[in-house]
Design a protein that fits this description.
By secondary structure, the chain is mostly helical. It is built from five helices and no strands. Helix content is 65%, strand content 0%.
């Protein structure tokens, strides 16, 4: 699985575990909803700063968004 696919999958999984919409994650992270949608659809690659903001909003480490992730 490519890093882009892992990021997309992990982001979606972690967001849904919190029962957040893309708009709610955007609000918590300070990013635009369109940005979240594009990352989840593997259309855009976020900056390191975007990854950090998303991780902070989800209360996870940046590595949790990029590593192979086994759901609990």
């Amino acid at each position: 699985m490519s890093i882009r696919s892992r990021l997309s999958s992990n982001l979606r999984l972690l967001r849904l575990q919190r029962r957040w919409s893309q708009a709610e994650l955007a609000n918590h992270s300070g990013l635009e909803c369109k940005t979240i949608r594009l990352i989840e659809s593997e259309t855009a690659l976020p900056t390191i700063e975007d990854i950090d903001r998303i991780a902070s909003a989800l209360e996870v480490n940046c590595s949790d968004l990029l590593d192979e992730f086994e759901p609990e």
